[in-house]
Amino acid sequence: MPKDNYEPYVFPDLTRLFAPRTVAVIGASEKEHSIGNHAMRNIVQHSAFAGTVYPVNPKQAEVMGLRCYPDVASLPEAVDVIVVVVPAPAVRAAVEQAGEKGCGFAVILTSGFSEADDWGRAEEAALVEISQRTGIRIYGPNCPGLVNLNLPLGLTFSPAFKDDITPGPIGLATQGGGLGRNMIQHNVRGIGFGLWSSSGNECDLQVADFVHHMAQDPEIKVIGCLIEGFKDGARFAAACQEAARKGKPVVGLKVGRSAYGARAAQSHTASITGSAEVNSTVFRQMGVVEVDDLDELVDVAMLFTRKMPEGTEKIAVFASSGGAASLCADNVGIAGLELAEFTPETAKRLADALPPYAGMSNPIDTTSISISHPDAYREALAACADDANVGLVLAPLPMDYGTYSVVNAGSLKAVQDAASVPIVPIWMSERQGGGYAKLAEAGLPPFRSLRNMRKAVRRWIDYGLWRAARDTGWQPGIIATGSQGDPDPTRTLSEVEGKRALAAAGVPATAPEIATTAEDAVRIAQAMGTVAMKIVSAQITHKSDIGGVKLGVTGDGAAAAFAEIMANARAAVPSATLDGVLIEPMAPAGGLEAFVGILRDPVFGQVMTFGLGGIYVEMFADVTRRMLPVTRPMAEEMIGELKSAKLLTGYRGQPKRDVAALADLIVKVSDYAMATPGLVEMDINPVWTGTEGQGVMALDAVIVVEE
Amino acid sequence: MPKDNYEPYVFPDLTRLFAPRTVAVIGASEKEHSIGNHAMRNIVQHSAFAGTVYPVNPKQAEVMGLRCYPDVASLPEAVDVIVVVVPAPAVRAAVEQAGEKGCGFAVILTSGFSEADDWGRAEEAALVEISQRTGIRIYGPNCPGLVNLNLPLGLTFSPAFKDDITPGPIGLATQGGGLGRNMIQHNVRGIGFGLWSSSGNECDLQVADFVHHMAQDPEIKVIGCLIEGFKDGARFAAACQEAARKGKPVVGLKVGRSAYGARAAQSHTASITGSAEVNSTVFRQMGVVEVDDLDELVDVAMLFTRKMPEGTEKIAVFASSGGAASLCADNVGIAGLELAEFTPETAKRLADALPPYAGMSNPIDTTSISISHPDAYREALAACADDANVGLVLAPLPMDYGTYSVVNAGSLKAVQDAASVPIVPIWMSERQGGGYAKLAEAGLPPFRSLRNMRKAVRRWIDYGLWRAARDTGWQPGIIATGSQGDPDPTRTLSEVEGKRALAAAGVPATAPEIATTAEDAVRIAQAMGTVAMKIVSAQITHKSDIGGVKLGVTGDGAAAAFAEIMANARAAVPSATLDGVLIEPMAPAGGLEAFVGILRDPVFGQVMTFGLGGIYVEMFADVTRRMLPVTRPMAEEMIGELKSAKLLTGYRGQPKRDVAALADLIVKVSDYAMATPGLVEMDINPVWTGTEGQGVMALDAVIVVEE
């Protein structure tokens, strides 16, 4: 396969950004409520930072008891990180001095750059130039900074930093600050985020770099991403591959699933939001778990920290309300998850522990013995958790029952301490009572709704399956970046050119020829057998409408067909230049029509869309997509993913189609696209698909390339 | 249309159940923590009950300072309600005495009836007999009771009653108690449930009766239902019609959307859970807003209490975080809702109030002026709320920002006080800070996630549209109950019988005749034109496989065809009784195939399924359903609802199909089914559907009736 447009990704080492030994605060201030004061306080007072802090401010001799330096150049050493909070016009000089001095990173909190105006865009470009020239890496600008809550250290001006210091195994990469803070505040559930980057304009370092870093950090088990727009989609995909290699799930929420969201996110972050369908395709392909809202992101991440899934886990539902048991089991079923069958030993333990009127098959309804006999409740829960068939225990708690809830939460904790499978509480009440607090404290962060539980467990299982499949050898491949931004002027290949290009690339396609005389036409038709004939003219697009197409022509008949087509064309569009009549063999009757398209996504480069034609696409949107390159196993997956796949494999006694040839064609098209960097888009439609052994054939192809 | 199997519903007057003047507690007790003590306390101490309370207990002279009676018979008057908490074996006598005395209602909290064992089932049947004989209506047994929080009065043993007394405009009907309590506890958001029934085994009164009552109660604006299983589906539908007539939305969650849930709910409530598809059909048809989880039920109900929708409302998004603005706008778009365009006046007010770097088109991002300039934040919000194009303002609040959040919540309240459109906060943080409490207190119950907001607003708008459409004259019609439970032994009509029955009912169907000789065959074929011929034998099912079918036969050719079919049949199944050869006209080529089915749902009676045949059903499940009767406008709706509807209305230059004739056929099939109470199921497949003017024709029909 062609290698020209591949680009290996080299990710920066961010160890000293997240765990610096020395930090300078440019714009440090004693002034209460100033940004420079907040930033200093967060490092000096609210962090447990053992390194050296240098305040920089030409107007002050000392800040918070530390000697203050007039500028970066006069610092006694090249610090790991400068945190920049001076006004925008003063930022460039500070970063330039830091770069020249050999500092590692500039965390620029200041706003007023590319998100604001032309001056800001130019200034940001100058920062990038400094970074490239001196090697200093830039975080921001226009951001609240970053936090390492596992130290803890906050390189941020946020006054909320001190209230949300909970260490933990989740890494979080966002762009804006508000929604990240929202997720961090799920720490009331007892779940902590060890690292949080919130990288604003991302003129240099971007979400992909933080994902890659978190993949290396041994304290981080799972990575959450909230993405408003991508700077470099392929870089993100490569970072996700790295996380997968390290066995760390990435959970993603992408803003811009609707036109409103895409527009708003673009104006907020000045990033490319791209197509939601392509984004979802890439997420799925790279094993990124896509979620629907912020709480779902936290829920899924939280579940991964409890245990990494095998994908084969069966569920036990353990409740003390019949309604909660039913509704929880219902949600298990809705998600397509499986309830475990208890072993005879478990059944006996349950029968011994619970009263006869309790629900003892799965789901379990202990009834009110959770209140009257907490020991029996605990023993029954332990029986569930010990069952060899159970991979996850769900414990829905529908209401806040005051101290009774606290006792039950304690039972969950006690049983979990001795159990190897995760016991997952669902605190369903909006009232966060003492039981909720007890669960949080016990390291059993509760889900908050059955719907969220269902979605999270489904995604957890699916990740296990994805990982298992990946372990068997599937590789997502290297990413073709293609060109980004506005394409150059384009040209559409003629039908003859296009089909010759496909044929040269090994894609089965009809081989048309152009007849300019009736004699030509007869000669060509005689060689081809039964043919289709159509007028060739740049000025005539709707060929059928003007009588410019004849189908099923054979041999001598081509002469009359040629004359008729030319006459019809001349009559319909007298001014048109007629280049002749295209003649090509007709495909055998009874083929099924498929299509293969390639587009160049502005974020993720070349992406293939495949499906069956007509109704299936237009009414049922029955298509499947992949980033290129598409390998043979991927092509087979794509074919199998169609809802209408049965039409290919033999529906209602219809013959099986030539799926092998179709898969070959998909791979060849992928190869062709990868080898054609100037390809803007192509659409092979229809692909005639014969029965087994008959092969496939591109009957029409529109190929658009950069000029 | 036939009327025989219609049944008008007469609903009981439950005024004195929810607002009794006199209550007796059967099993009242002084004993701390006993059920009888809780029940007494809830009425005497925790309610504001101005009526008379009679404790009944033969072992005590006085309970809580009130004179105690030895039994119901000795009470000085016929009370409105007896609350029964004595053990199951003592329940029947108390209810019998109450019935004979002329008491109105028995609220039976005691368990151990049909949910437990055969004795309990028999005892429950005896209670029903007492109710029918004496007129006393029974609530329960096996339930936590009912509460009227608008008084407040709690006829319940729940120790949680006293902690959840928030009056409000939502009525709630559940069966079990735990999940109902879950919803009641959303009162921490500042939203109250005025009435809550939780009716357990429902041996007499059932959810439908409570919905009907809540539809009459002037203090109730919206009704929530959580249904584990139906006792009488048609009664429920009729109650929902009544709520719609009163302009009150019903919001429903049905357990049993999966096999696990259906099985669990059935064992929990001993009700019929029915088919999830049919349930959703009925909900949609009756305007019941179906939700996916308990919090969604509360969210949707809450939004209805804010304002009844027109269905045309456009949305403003007002945030002080760029990310929240984007993600909220994204959710608006995902839900297919519309962002409002601001008027020039609003644009000017926003420009005057906000800094130039704020996001001033919709969605609004005030930036941090929400903290630095709360007055400007308030003025900008007022500008949004005053805009004539805005029907709803969404205010996402992504994080708990301590006192700043409290100030912003105060601004929301101040602007809402002067505004006519609802201002809807989304408190997205899991941390329920002071701002959350302030919103709750201000009567602005917050949503808790953007996803839930999106779903609730979509359902709110959809209800407005449903109501508007309903106002234009559409009527859901009367419900055909059909038989319930196990059907009697059944019989399948022969093809000739079936088609004659359809034709007699005005359903266009081929009119087959049976030829027993070659001469017959020729005579029949000559009269019909081009015909299809097939063997008729009870012993031969796969007719084509044995050469028992001939298509496209004309005139004299029928003689040879007859001989060949008979010979083939004889050769293939020598022992078969051959009744002759069925001959019927062939439908013209090129028709589209549709199908119409009727099934008798155990909960909702006769339900029609309609769709296009083959692939569309099997791969894409592209069908639509209605409870019978289907009127002509409903039939047109059904046709239009198919994803593949375009195939009927002219896809890609294909001719338009005879939609009018298809709609007529649907109505005639509905009429036929309604007139055939013994109909167990029917499947007309295919319905040949010609081009406009060509009509339609039932080509095959399987009709199963009770013997």
TrEMBL record, chains A, B:
> Any keyword Plastid?
no
- Note the SUPFAM superfamilies from the entry: Glutathione synthetase ATP-binding domain-like, NAD(P)-binding Rossmann-fold domains, Succinyl-CoA synthetase domains
Q: Might you name a Gene Ontology BP term for this protein?
A: tricarboxylic acid cycle
Q: Which SMART domains match?
A: CoA_binding
Which keywords annotate this record? ATP-binding, Ligase, Nucleotide-binding, Tricarboxylic acid cycle
Q: Name one GO molecular function term.
A: ligase activity
Q: Which Pfam families match?
A: ATP-grasp_5, CoA_binding_2, Succ_CoA_lig
Ranges where the CoA-binding domain occurs: 17-113
Q: Which PANTHER family match?
A: 3-HYDROXYPROPIONATE--COA LIGASE [ADP-FORMING] (PTHR43334:SF1), ACETATE--COA LIGASE [ADP-FORMING] (PTHR43334)
UniProt name for this protein: CoA-binding protein
